Amino acid sequence: MHLIMFDIDGTLVESYDFDTECFQAAIRDVLGIAIGSDWSCYRHVTDSGILAEIVAESGFHSDRERIEAKVKEQFVSRVADYISCHEVSPIPGAYNFLSQLVSRQNVSVAFATGGWAESARMKLNAAGLSFPSIPLASSSDHNSRIEIMRLAERLVGTDHYDSRTYFGDGPWDQKASETLGYNFISVGHRISSLQSIRDYTEADVALRYIGL
């Protein structure tokens, strides 16, 4: 059995840019501060992880839970507003590739995203990638990407895998995969890796990297 796990923003959905803008705007709306878009400076590059660090550094410890809930609410609302007015595209070939994997008897598929579950599902649905049978672990579950990936693996429920592969588009995806011993495949051109595909129209290349 082969476990194949996917990030979402920039990996399955063309949402990295607007997702970043919505997150920055939500922070500005609630906390009144401007943040940059270099997520690599944060310990945990997930929605909850970045937010927790910003709240701690800004001195809002005593009101942390209320502030974090308000930022999340504002962010999810902004993502919903964006989706209602704009077309959200999947990474080319993503639907066919996921469909092919789901249909295989020797493959288990999971989503493991640094985004919150509510916005992640919205983006998948808007991009035509609604796969209810695929379990999803997210920043709603933990602020650490490594722990999110571990949870996604548990949600699939298989005890042993011949291989474990993670598709991602950020250096944090690559780092988490290395830590957990996952086979890593980068999608797009945001980072360089030994195994890389432009998009899922290169399905044959991706399957070869997985070992299928």
TrEMBL record:
Source species, domain of life: Bacteria
Matching InterPro entries, A to Z?
HAD-like_sf (IPR036412), HAD_2 (IPR041492), HAD_sf (IPR023214), PGP-like_dom2 (IPR023198)
**Any idea what this protein is called?**
Phosphoglycolate phosphatase, HAD superfamily
Q: Which organism is it from?
A: Amphritea atlantica
Tell me the classification of the organism that encodes this protein. Bacteria, Pseudomonadati, Pseudomonadota, Gammaproteobacteria, Oceanospirillales
